[in-house]
Design brief:
Layout: E1 8-10, E2 18-21, H1 28-42, E3 49-53, H2 64-72, E4 79-83, H3 87-96, H4 102-106, H5 110-116, H6 124-127, H7 131-141, H8 144-152, E5 156-158, E6 162-165, H9 180-185, H10 188-191, E7 200-203, E8 212-214, E9 217-219, H11 224-227, E10 231-236, E11 239-244
Parallel strand pairs: 1-5, 2-3, 3-4, 6-7, 7-9
Antiparallel strand pairs: 2-10, 5-6, 8-9, 10-11
Length: about 240
């Protein structure tokens, strides 16, 4: 199945606060805590609010299926929610569409994902010694609604002053020239470029022990699946407020 470019959203939030959540990686427990912290924080702010999750909801942590189900459900009252894709969602689809092998997918932490759907990654190859039969069984065992949800995730949200994306951008290219692979995989060309960024970029993808707040870049991937710390950034009226589970 050929790949197609992901949707790119443009919005002007006006005076609406935006809450960005970093890489979740199967930590449904931390996602629930983060959303409750967001609701508590927003209680004093009138009007609607927006939650943007930055991708990598699956793999490594124990509850990938539950995280996807949660993101598919309605957001908290008075909130909207946008779930961006990360590289792990795109790699899962690459496996399901036959572009990478089962072994390559497992290297990304997919054994934990399969377990969350009631499948044993180590036992399956013993039942299905043929790769084609193994792949077919997994494809039919995963909920179609979850797969469709991952296929439909947009890849960035562009606002007048802030860009929300999973990994970052190539600073040498304009925003409309960015390719999907860079938006979910880029690291060093984003971090080390001397070219000024066009606006503040809020991202995850590269784990850090503490949120990395720079003048034009904010990294909120604090390695939730192993650190027990899922980080949230509230962006409102030109200010950033950070808090973690």
């Amino acid at each position: 199945m050929p790949t197609s470019a992901r949707q790119r959203l443009t919005l002007d939030p006006g005076d609406m606060p935006i809450y960005a959540i970093g890489d979740i990686h199967g930590r449904h427990d931390l996602l629930l805590k983060a959303e409750q912290a967001i609701v508590d924080d927003a209680a004093k702010i009138p009007g609607r609010k927006l939650i943007i999750t930055l991708g990598d909801y699956i793999d490594r942590g124990p509850s990938s299926a539950q995280v996807i189900s949660h993101l598919m459900a309605p957001p908290p009252e008075d909130f909207d929610r946008i779930s961006l894709t990360g590289n792990h969602e795109m790699i899962m689809l690459d496996y399901l569409d036959g572009r990478i092998s089962y072994a390559d997918w497992l290297n990304m932490g997919a054994d934990a994902l399969l377990h969350s759907y009631g499948l044993d990654a180590n036992h399956l190859p013993m039942i299905f010694p043929s790769a084609s039969k193994l792949d077919a069984f997994i494809r039919q065992s995963l909920p179609k609604g979850h797969i469709d949800f991952m296929r439909e995730m947009p890849i960035l949200v562009d606002t007048p002053h802030v860009l929300f994306v999973h990994a970052g951008i190539d600073p040498s290219l304009t925003l409309d020239q960015q390719n999907d692979e860079d938006l979910v995989f880029i690291r060093q060309r984003f971090f080390n470029s001397s070219t000024p960024l066009p606006k503040v970029v809020v991202h995850g993808h590269t784990p850090v022990s503490e949120p990395e707040a720079l003048p034009m870049r904010l990294n909120i991937d604090t390695g939730a699946y192993h650190s027990d710390k899922l980080t949230v950034a509230r962006l409102w009226r030109g200010r950033v407020h950070l808090f973690s589970t």
